[in-house]
């Protein structure tokens, strides 16, 4: 079959609508109609070529939600009509990493990254699917292990955010750092990911959640997600301010802006003797984080996580239970909704810092 999709043909060029050929649904695969898709900063980095792991032409989008329209032979856990989120990181449930409590990085995902398999093609030439998803297409074909079945009572334009920014931010707190009640937390970068770190910290019962940003608008927005303090990094030295506010540093610092310089600041704002830094942002290709070993020997640690270390099929759908129970704010997260034809404007809003999440739909 064919599907409409927004395609980027070369770095720095606008997305254009194309009718792509879509591979048929094979054994163990699922056809999904994408109903809503959130725009993420890593999509923009791919489009601009600054952090671009996929070749062009490419369909970006990895924060989609939709409805299953067809299942292939052998699919047992998913049925037509199910509401689902297509997953960049699948969960086969059987490999060593899936059976481990430590990681969400299914070994099949590691193989998927290497092969960059895509269901899309144009005039016989492959078109890449960013993050193995490509949710700026109306239809996608995914392996069963790469599909999370979600509850049906959360609207698609809100549910899609669980596919990246909510999983990455809330997951980093609950499934990577394991922030404990009463802990102090700093968050560098209060975009869609950072504000989900903030609300994850609130869920965990953190005593203080300090946000750092250069956009003063984020102060008021952050309060709605559980921010207790705001540091305007244009006005003050963020590290000194956090050290002073907490009497020696926070228990946990999260970097959610994709800047190596901010990763350093996050690290230096943690407490000596146990402070933990979690690296979430994706810096431009080639940027390297350097650390003085003695800083680690002082009991500070650095961790990273991919999609918040949330297992895609068994844990990610549960994030939406928090929304249903009023403990997670998605309504203020989705600041803009646009028709797919205006997707380029959606990315422009992101670049200007005007949106938290812009959700698009065909
Ligand atoms: Zn993302
Ligand atoms: Zn696995």
Structure description:
The protein has 362 residues and is an alpha/beta fold. It folds into 2 domains: 2-163 and 332-361, Medium-chain alcohol dehydrogenases, catalytic domain (Quinone Oxidoreductase, Chain A, domain 1); 169-305, Rossmann fold. Helix content is 27%, strand content 25%. It is built from 12 helices and 18 strands. The strands form 3 sheets. Strands 3, 5, 6, 9, 10, 17 and 18 form a 7-stranded mixed sheet that branches. Strands 13-12-11-14-15-16 form a 6-stranded parallel sheet, with helices on both faces. A 5-stranded mixed sheet has the order 1-2-7-8-4, with no helix packed on it. Strand 17 (334-339), helix 12 (343-351) and strand 18 (357-361) form a beta-alpha-beta unit. The longest helix has 13 residues, at 165-177. The protein starts with a strand and ends with a strand. The relative contact order is 0.16. The protein binds zinc ion (2 copies). One zinc ion (ZN) binds next to loops.
